[in-house]
């Protein structure tokens, strides 16, 4: 397939994801506002549907019985992240040998797998400190620690992330002890996470992931889909702020302008919702819905930033495996929360009252799985920037859908706020792509 045809397929997949995500938001809004106001139940079922991603890995384990050889040519599904990693991290001697080759031959900028941590931002590749090969054999294993420092290369500011992941990573205290024994290596060049490491990581981040989705679904029960989508998309704004604080991101004039655009856009949307009559089928508490959507964006930014700090680069983790394990952990661990919500009367347990509600829940679960897989395909066929900017079309799509349902639901302030967030969204994506 030619490059032009590949981009055409990628563009079609991006539009498909836009339509699916927008449809999912409208379905959730309809379910919540037409007799089944159970945001926890809707979130629980939607996140549990990620377990479907584990089916291909189970098949790979049954078919191969062991991880594939490192020198085997990658299959199409492996490029999407569906590759069975080793059960445990590699032995220390293998890590030392790989680090020798890395220190002799720096990164050549090879492309990452299409598995972005944040589906609304370009992928990242932080620099991480690793022990020199000769020092690793004598260094004790230490607990995980994180730090940051900044170095200047011409006009570009590179970010350094310190991580101690036994046996090859140095902590901040290690750096003071060994000095030159620490070297900077792009995170994408480090060994990929094993199955056990991915499982532990998924358990650690499942709570933040669930909180981000729960608050967003709850927001759709109180505000319009357009407002919820616009405010939820401000996660890029919060990710930039949080990332600049912890060292995974840095400000620039373009990013600063994007922050102000996003801030004013969010303020305009909230102002419009505070004075406008609520839309058909939406509870008359739009401000509560707006606040929940903003909390969702903040939780998602926290999830993205912490995950970047832990692994450095999306290339080191299989996102389908990670999401599948997150779904499995949510399925197993969060059902007691539903019982507690029932006991205290916040969200009584109840089945959907009719077949339409059942169909809405089922279709929403299917959309969750299909849309994320289509996103991975779109990243493979096009580029991170194209996909990121293309996904921002969910904002005008949601606004158009609300206008079709109820023309009075959109006013000038709301429309202008959506445009500002959309512009901020695209500007941050463009800046990230050209400064990466």
TrEMBL record:
One of its GO terms (molecular function) is transmembrane transporter activity. The keyword Transport applies. The keyword Transmembrane applies. Residues 88-178 are annotated as: Disordered. GO terms for cellular component: fungal-type vacuole membrane. Pfam families: SLC35F. Residues 153-163 have a biased composition (Basic and acidic residues). It is found in: Membrane. It is a multi-pass membrane protein. The chain crosses the membrane at residues 7-28, 40-63, 198-216, 222-242, 254-271, 291-309, 321-344, 356-378. Residues 139-151 have a biased composition (Basic residues). Keywords: Membrane, Transmembrane, Transmembrane helix, Transport. Belongs to the SLC35F solute transporter family. This is EamA domain-containing protein. The lineage of its organism: Eukaryota, Fungi, Dikarya, Basidiomycota, Ustilaginomycotina.
